[in-house]
Design brief:
Length: 444
Amino acid sequence: MNELLIEPFQGPASGRAQIPGSKSISNRALILAFLSESTVEIRNLLRSQDTDVLREAFETLGIQASEKSSGSIQVTGCSGQPPNDSGEIYVENAGTVARFLPAALSLMPEGNFEFDGSEAMRKRPMAGLLDCLKALGTSVDYQGEEGYFPFRLSTRGWSPKTLSVDASRSSQILSALLIAATRAPHPMRIRLEGETVSKPFVEMTVRMIRQFGGTISFEEPDFLIEPGLTGPTTGVYDIEPDASAASYFFALPIAVGGATTVGSFPEESLQGDLAFTEVLQEIGLSQCLSNGDVILDGTTKTRAVDVDFNAFSDTFLTLAALAPLLPGTTRIRGIAHTRHQETDRVAAMATELRKLGQGIVEEEDSLTITPNRSAMVELSQAAPIAIDTYEDHRVAMSFGILASHDLHGDGRPWIQIRNPECCRKTFPKFFEELARMRSIANAR
Ligand SMILES: O=C(O)C1=C[C@@H](OP(=O)(O)O)[C@@H](O)[C@H](O)C1
Ligand SMILES: C=C(OP(=O)(O)O)C(=O)O
């Protein structure tokens, strides 16, 4: 297995980190463009495994998504009726594709699709969505365990006008149905049963449906969706930088001091994960906003925090990995649902932090980390510690930031990351970007 030894920074961070387009916005934009009645040009689309699998599925379905010379992608909207009504679709481990695409294709009056995903995806919750598709008229044939990939869908369009959704295990299930409902043959009333995790992602869905010309409202406890999606009025859609990916560079000053700039986010960003910058301010970093750029300065004293991450849990790993450098016990709550994502993230972070000698209390919904610097120094004295990444891009990236800290004070690497390529899911050039930021810091 490939391992990457991380060189600690030899100077404080400075400069601007280059962040790719948002995964969540990119895959919503691609699906909404396919459901639209017009052609949509998407600018700054993320190029990574999670968007590649959706574009490959588009190819299977005959949906045109072509590269323009300017670097943008042009999707020929087909009102949700692709040229091909059958095919095999592989979603790898992309939660957005796994949820959004089956829901969108279930609108077809006569479609037959085989769906499968990676080993990890075969364990992720799908039943909440597939039960809804059955209620709408699709038949679902499970090839393995009921409620999970792989399965075959025989679609018959949507008949009922109301639907109850259980999105307690993933908000993507609700988002998928709201997006697809824009092409239902009649107005839809969709009720969320109970609570959903990751609420800001549902708000992102609602706002993006409107940006694509759809009509959606919320009348507690129902979402009301009118049929029709014209596409963005200008015909062009711009993707924001990815706020979860930005979290690593926002937090870098905790590990190496200095300040990092990440830009440019629109004033009314669609991404709830920007709330992570508030956590960093609570830790003691100061934040400055300038023309959409966010600058975090870590030259001040830091403190440990106790935070509920339920609404922006993709960023909890960033804090967990840096907790060993904070002066006190860090508590991270609201993260039980992340046990069903790329890997069991709570268990993965607990295991790897224990390898570094940190005091860990792992509960179903929380992680408490008590730093132990001398254990970390001692354990990495003879040789660097190897961090396992469980095919989870966020485990790799967050420990990459911790590893940038000059623990031994002599520039000696003390962490190596196993299978760093798993970053290809959302940020293929993450370690190159970290190295570029390091060379700027070292040159100062
Ligand atoms: O809708 C989305 O784009 C996402 C929703 C969240 O998932 P869950 O709702 O499964 O927590 C988040 O973790 C994921 O990275 C992206
Ligand atoms: C949970 C994540 O991904 P997915 O879209 O596969 O759910 C993530 O990117 O952290």
